[in-house]
Amino acid sequence: MFTGTLRVKIHEAASLRPTDFQKRHNVTFGKLGDATQQLLDPYVSIDVDEKFIDKSTTKKQTNDPKWDESFIHEVENASTLGITIFHQALPSDVFVANCTIPFDDVFERQEQEQQEFWVDLEPEGKIKIRVDVKWTQESTPKKEVSRRQITTTAKDQPFLNRRRGAMRRRVHQVNGHKFMATFLRQPTFCSHCREFIWGLGKQGYQCQVCTCVVHKRCHLSVVTKCPKKKDEQNKAQQEIVQRFNVNVPHRFAVHSFKRLTFCDHCGSLLYGIFRQGLKCEVCSMNIHRRCQENVANNCGINTKQLAEILSEMGITMDKTPPRKTRRSARDALNFDTEFTKEEPVLTPVPNDIVRCINQEEFAGFSFTNAEFGPERKIVC
């Protein structure tokens, strides 16, 4: 947890690309438009523990923007710093990429004097930032201890008055998916439970990377990993994932539907008179052509029943991937220096206590401590 002054400087970003959600309607002669030719109007949103604090200006028509803008804020009990890039559009801004930086990594970089660094974004691109932190010297009591309060300096206040509502869109990260509340303009079915999504306004959650649509109640139960998620797991994490992994590819073929059919991935209607979409030859899953590369390898698996079984077993999908904690010299500041210099001493167990132990539990075990002589030999 960090309490103090946070200073973030956004330098530049590189290799930004529109997501499949943004270019899902860019169709030219039956093929998706080239994402590399589509330029963005990007800006950066900064949040601490998933709470928005500031935003940068918008750069027009570029996939490699440069900002060189600084933001200073006072934060309390903060654990993670979030960087999200949006594309400015109407009626609502579109997600481009994001990343999460634990403050433990920031502390380690500050000790190594590497406050300026590049960060890889998901699903595409990278961003160059500089993060400086200054711990609070004296802790003053707060009226509301349960809430983390964020205050801004006077010079940064104008940033909060522009498009304030557009910046409060949260990105819910579950199993690699980037879910955001979305307004569905046509009848849509949930890709998890296959039920119709009812409601007005922003009825469901849609992944901004693979375009799958689910109920708000279902987004925490999604068991399949997003196909566009970067695989950056270490050995220990891979061993955990291998214990439970859904990886059964579909066998899609072009199909002509004789009645109104909805896509089982994005939930929207399959348009056309004939050859409207693709159908799996094994599990009969129906999808758009544009959704084929975004469908998870879960052929023949009922994801709703699987999620219910895992829930009964006490296994839930983590909202954020497991992260290995890093240790630094700051973790040992509260230890007594005289105590840490002492060598560990092993205190022998008295013979009376040893005789009271059930010896059958230690059958075949033998141990001799040379420092206490042959009378300390224990043979079972």
TrEMBL record:
<protein>
    <recommendedName>
        <fullName>protein kinase C</fullName>
        <ecNumber>2.7.11.13</ecNumber>
    </recommendedName>
</protein>
<keyword id="KW-0862">Zinc</keyword>
<dbReference type="GO" id="GO:0016020">
    <property type="term" value="C:membrane"/>
</dbReference>
<dbReference type="InterPro" id="IPR046349">
    <property type="entry name" value="C1-like_sf"/>
</dbReference>
<dbReference type="Pfam" id="PF00168">
    <property type="entry name" value="C2"/>
</dbReference>
<keyword id="KW-0479">Metal-binding</keyword>
<dbReference type="GO" id="GO:0005524">
    <property type="term" value="F:ATP binding"/>
</dbReference>
<keyword id="KW-0547">Nucleotide-binding</keyword>
<dbReference type="GO" id="GO:0008270">
    <property type="term" value="F:zinc ion binding"/>
</dbReference>
<dbReference type="InterPro" id="IPR017892">
    <property type="entry name" value="Pkinase_C"/>
</dbReference>
<dbReference type="InterPro" id="IPR000961">
    <property type="entry name" value="AGC-kinase_C"/>
</dbReference>
<keyword id="KW-0418">Kinase</keyword>
<dbReference type="GO" id="GO:0007200">
    <property type="term" value="P:phospholipase C-activating G protein-coupled receptor signaling pathway"/>
</dbReference>
<dbReference type="InterPro" id="IPR000008">
    <property type="entry name" value="C2_dom"/>
</dbReference>
<keyword id="KW-0067">ATP-binding</keyword>
<feature type="domain" description="Phorbol-ester/DAG-type">
    <location>
        <begin position="249"/>
        <end position="299"/>
    </location>
</feature>
<keyword id="KW-0597">Phosphoprotein</keyword>
<dbReference type="Pfam" id="PF00130">
    <property type="entry name" value="C1_1"/>
</dbReference>
<dbReference type="Pfam" id="PF00433">
    <property type="entry name" value="Pkinase_C"/>
</dbReference>
<dbReference type="GO" id="GO:0035556">
    <property type="term" value="P:intracellular signal transduction"/>
</dbReference>
<keyword id="KW-0677">Repeat</keyword>
<keyword id="KW-0723">Serine/threonine-protein kinase</keyword>
<dbReference type="InterPro" id="IPR035892">
    <property type="entry name" value="C2_domain_sf"/>
</dbReference>
<feature type="domain" description="Phorbol-ester/DAG-type">
    <location>
        <begin position="176"/>
        <end position="226"/>
    </location>
</feature>
<keyword id="KW-0808">Transferase</keyword>
<dbReference type="GO" id="GO:0004697">
    <property type="term" value="F:diacylglycerol-dependent serine/threonine kinase activity"/>
</dbReference>
<feature type="domain" description="C2">
    <location>
        <begin position="1"/>
        <end position="119"/>
    </location>
</feature>
<comment type="similarity">
    <text>Belongs to the protein kinase superfamily. AGC Ser/Thr protein kinase family. PKC subfamily.</text>
</comment>
<dbReference type="GO" id="GO:0005829">
    <property type="term" value="C:cytosol"/>
</dbReference>
<dbReference type="InterPro" id="IPR002219">
    <property type="entry name" value="PKC_DAG/PE"/>
</dbReference>
<keyword id="KW-0863">Zinc-finger</keyword>
<dbReference type="InterPro" id="IPR020454">
    <property type="entry name" value="DAG/PE-bd"/>
</dbReference>
